[in-house]
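Hi C.,

You asked whether I'd gotten around to modeling the 148-residue construct. I have! Everything is below, sequence then structure, no commentary in between.
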Amino acid sequence: MADTDFHKVFESERAEWREKIQVISLSLKNIRTVAEAQIELFSTRQILIEYSFKLASIISKLSSRERQERAKKLKEYQENKDIRYGSNETKTLIEGDLAEITQKIELVEGHRKFMDQTVQTVDTCYNMLYGIKQRVSLEEYLRGSTIK
């Protein structure tokens, strides 16, 4: 899959996650849907964490491949070429050779950071659930009754 394809897939996933989190957040506004929202938050958080770890695994594999390719290219430029390059030139040539894999790593890392930030957003929503008792008390107070 080309980088642009990954970029499109990741953009689509980001939009889906933004929408899903917004829907859950809106369900926290209504006291009748809070229990359902809590369950949804738990499952969403787990899915996000598992996906983040999957992305971390992909990054690890790509980084390993990049290191191997970097070592291979370094050896190639030092030993198998008739032209002798300086260290800065060699470094620049290797970076050019590895540009595609480096872009993939950066793309996946960016997506993983988004997923981690989404987990933090879910955690914030979850922490808001601890204020439910006060919300219930306030709702009761506004209706004119008292909670014992």
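If it helps when you're writing up: The two ends are 61 Å apart (CA to CA).

Thanks,
B.
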